[in-house]
Structure prediction request, 304 residues.
Amino acid sequence: MTIRHLRIFMAVCEHGGNVTKAAASLHMSQPAVSLAIRELETYYGVQLFERNGRHLKIAEAGRRLAVYAVSITGTFDDMEETMRSWETSGPLHVGASITIGSQFLPSYVSAFSARYPDSQVKAMVAPGALLEEKVLMNELDFALVEGAVHDSAFVSKRYMQDRLAMVLRPSARHLNRSVITLEEFRAMPFLLREKGSGTREVFDNAVEKAGFSVEPVWEAYSTTALLKAAEQGLGAAVLPYRMVVPALQSGRVIELVPEELDFTRSFHIIYQKHKHLTAAARDFIQLCIDYEMDYPLIHHSALE
Prediction:
């Protein structure tokens, strides 16, 4: 018994037992329709129709089968539509680190949803270590993280160049200055992201290479909180450049670049090595890659 048998059976029912009309509606021959009905009756060992020449009258067993046939064929059609469109309309589970999630992910999802209105994006914004776990557990299709992941279980693709900016409230002391010495830098009260974050890792690595370390006066998960603290004159916040552009343009903060320190970094897309990415997932990734072309990073470094 196949879906084809049920569709033929339903066509005969819909045409009041008229095999000729049922065959015409299915673009089949009358003998082929009659054969399919007999095969169904043989399969179940029941009489589905009472015969009167070319016309059939549905029997009690036929009425019972019709109830199931409507449900089964409807469910089958739903399955066909869902699975055939899965590559472009299935749900997409995306992870992003806190910086990327707060600064870029909303733009990515908005642009993607305009292109794939039937595909639901389920997002998770969390520290990079947790995102790696979720990708390995297949709870996320892929994740956008700060820095490369050196684990053979992942594919890690660079998709955007980024840099950190040290910003603080404008003051007469720093008027008309853009570069400071390492001694001045070390004396700053720092407002930093928490240990373990991608932003903090870039900062710590840079100062470690210069041969020293710093103890921040503030540590926070929230980049917004750190920027607000810098605007209030509580210290120097070291944050992703693209995030602080509006505050720089409005004059609420200024950027100072320390000599001999390199705060550049890359964002990466990670997913399982053997993960099948749907067409929608591949397009989302390409959208992220294209974003840097539309919003290029403005470099400002004492090393240049």
